[in-house]
Amino acid sequence: MRSPNYIRRFLQFPQEISLQFLLIALLALQIICSISIILIVPESYFLVPLSHSIEKIIFLCIIAGILAAIGITIISHWVSKPILELKIAAKKMATGDLEESITISGVSELKELAMSLNQMAKQLQVSLTDLIALNTVDISDRLRLEQELANSQTKLNDILNTATASIASFRVYQNYTWQAEFYSSGCLTIFGYTAEELMADKQLWASRILLEDWQSVIIPCFQGIFNQCNQTVDYRFLHKDNSWRWIRAVFTSRRDEQANCWIMISVDTDITERKEMEQQLKIASDELEKRVILRTSELAETNQLLKREIQERKQAEEALAASQHFIETIADTTPNLLYIVNPIQKRFVYVNQQYVKFFGRPTEEIKLSETFFTEVTHPNDVMKVFENFQKLTRLTDEEIIENEFRVRNFDGEWRWLHTRDVVFSRTADGLPEQILGTAVDVTVAKELETARMQAEQQIHFQASLLDAVHQAVIVTDLSGTIIYWNRYAETMYGWTAEEALGNSIIELIPIPNLQQQASEIMNQLRLGASWSGEFWVQKRNGTVFPCIVIDSPIYNERGEITGVIGVSIDISDRVLAEEELKRTKAELEVRVAQRTAELIQANRQLQHELNQRQQAEIALQEELLERKRAEAALQQSEALFRSLSESAPIGIFKTDAQGNCVYANPRCQPISGLKMEESLGDGWMRSIDANDLNNILAQWRENKTKQQEFSVEICYCHPDGTVRFGRTKIAPIISKTGETIGQVGTIEDITEARAIEQMKSEFISIVSHELRTPLASIRGSLGLIAAGVLDDDPEAAKQMLEIAAIEADRLVRLVNDIVDLERLELNKVTLDKQWCDAYSLMQQSVQALRHLSEESQITLQLEPVSMQIWADADRIIQTLVNLLSNAIKFSPPQSIVKLSAQEQSDRVLFQVQDCGRGIPADKLETIFGRFQQVDASDSRSKGGTGLGLAICRNIIQQHGGTIWVESILEKGSTFYFTLPLPWE
């Protein structure tokens, strides 16, 4: 026990304006618990004297403290005893002893507390009893449920492990990865691997699937798993015994939001035997089809056997009906027209479905109609058909009658039918009662045969023409190797066709100075014009003779020169005639002079030399006769020249000194648009444009005086409105006296060349403009920066650099597009075709434009597909990116651009649909051309080059497909393109 501590304080209270004092003493004792005793003693006036005696105060305090300590000890013992008893009872209750009751005397509050504890103990005893009973029941139920759950799990495991299928559970994640959680024991039968092996190696199952099936079957299933769709697929799996097994898998999935994955259940069964049975069934079906076709072709031969079988089984009506149904099935499925006709009544007994479809009439109408033959048969062939009926009545059993005639089908077209008829049944008298026939539509074959005969006749006619002409026709390739040698060439040069073919023209026919003229000839031919000249050539026997050679180029379907056709004309007779004519003329002039002198002398001696004069007249007549022969030879030479001119590939004409046309070859007609008789005189002026006519007349007058050649391009306006352009070269014909007696000229059709040149000029103009625009922007932006104008404004300088960068990118795109387009049009791009997954290409294209679509607030909607295409993947992606970028550029914000594809019978159709402003109907085709856009401002506002769609068209055409667009103004456009599927 501590000594008491005293704290003395004086508190003043106002009371009747007098001071009162309190004496406060604190006594702290420690017995059982800390108790502070506060003694408050009023200090009255009677104690005032005591305050002045310290010894008294101390004595009184000691006495008071002793008394207080004794009292507190007694009180503490009286209070602490029941508290200790409560404490002991509480510990027993805490340990679970609730049987002992608490008895306390003394303090009433503690008695009440003890009674409360006793009552609480009783209640706890009751509750504990109930709780024990309830826990006993709960434990029993839990044990029962655990036992049932264990039994159910055992049954489920037995079912899963005894099933003939492999049942597995996976967790599939958004990034196309998975985690196996369970495999049933059936996986050992299906896959050859235990569940432990498949769980240990995550990639084991996937690595054993055929790569083709993994890409085309399994990968597309992920989208269905994410969409929580039920899926059934078939794929091929390499069993552990190294045999390929067909597996049918059924996938079901559900979303696990907590694990952020999909729970997928896979049930796999082995369907290898079913697939083999299907294959065998297909083989059997194919074999059955072959047999049906064989039976159809051998129907005439098997008819007699069928007849005997029918006669033997007359009583078996059911078997007969089944056999008849089988035959009708075959007849209805055969592509030929089958029928049974009564030749006596001239009516049909049976027709197959192909016959009904061909004529478009009901079966009963064909059978019952008496005028069917005359209605459908061509009027010119009706008698032939009825004569055929007469022949059928006399037909023997093994005889087959074939016939061809024209009939009108359900479309009203006249078609050729080829029929084969045999006896099907006879009457009791032995007459043919039913005729079985088959008919085949041979219209196409007849047309092909007619075309072939006409082509053969044309080829034979052309060959006979070349062999009949009296000019040597020789064809060589560009290296000079002979590939054609006509019959007259054999006569002219002495070499047979067999000896000449395959040899060099230069070695076979030596021509002086030919090497020097070869380059001149080829340059002329490359310009599309013919070349002609005179040569002295050598025959096989070594003799030489003069000839005119006319060479013309030979083009292939692409317009490239692949060879040269040359026509050689022997002008030996003409040269000899000209020489003879010159010699005769000289001799004639000498003789005339001599005869004139002789005549003068003869006149003087007329009477004496009458006989000599008569002889001179006879000699003169002979000389005149020789001159006429020379003139005839000259006319023959001119006729030969005319023949050569009329076969020339360019227009040739001749005028007199006044400019009137006296001759024009046939080639002039398609160029000028005038017939030869219309061109004569001054008629050639009627089809020439007025401006060109004034120009050519002015040049004609000027060069006529100068006697010079001149060339001019002329525009010809045909009567039907067609416009052609020709390059005309005119040279004067000068007499021996130096006078211009006429002109000769050639006309070359340059319409196509001008069109190509115009296209080239337009292309260069457009490209120059498209190049100049970004270059001007780049130059202006960089010029401002280089001049220091924007040194104090970095933000503006940055904008100028961004403009320069954007225009530079546009310039690069333009150049790349031009290069790609030129390479595509010149077929310099080799397509690397391979099997591609269409959906993968579509995804790559959409991903490439994801940033652009987000900037433009456009939603790209991709419809999933599962198909393979045979194409160049990079080029198809380039096409899709071009079409999608156009759709994004021309679509309003918050709209949707759809990309889809679907497989058709022999091709795959891609579609790109937007909600843009649309395309006018008159520009649906032109926008696929170079630098063609709906609005000229699009190249500035949208950043396009105008070459994208032209590149797309070339890519699709090189794949053998087509591309087009359908559009509705203010609603949107849909671009389509197809890719053909190759024959397997």
From TrEMBL:
Keywords assigned: ATP-binding, Coiled coil, Kinase, Membrane, Nucleotide-binding, Phosphoprotein, Transferase, Transmembrane, Transmembrane helix, Two-component regulatory system
GO cellular component, one term: membrane
Gene Ontology process terms (BP): osmosensory signaling via phosphorelay pathway; regulation of DNA-templated transcription
Domain (PAS) ranges: 323-396, 465-509, 637-681
All copies of domain HAMP, residue ranges: 77-129
Enzyme Commission (EC) number: 2.7.13.3
Protein name per Swiss-Prot or TrEMBL: histidine kinase
Gene3D superfamilies in the record: 1.10.287.130, 6.10.340.10, Histidine kinase-like ATPase, C-terminal domain, PAS domain
Coiled coil: 107-162, 576-647
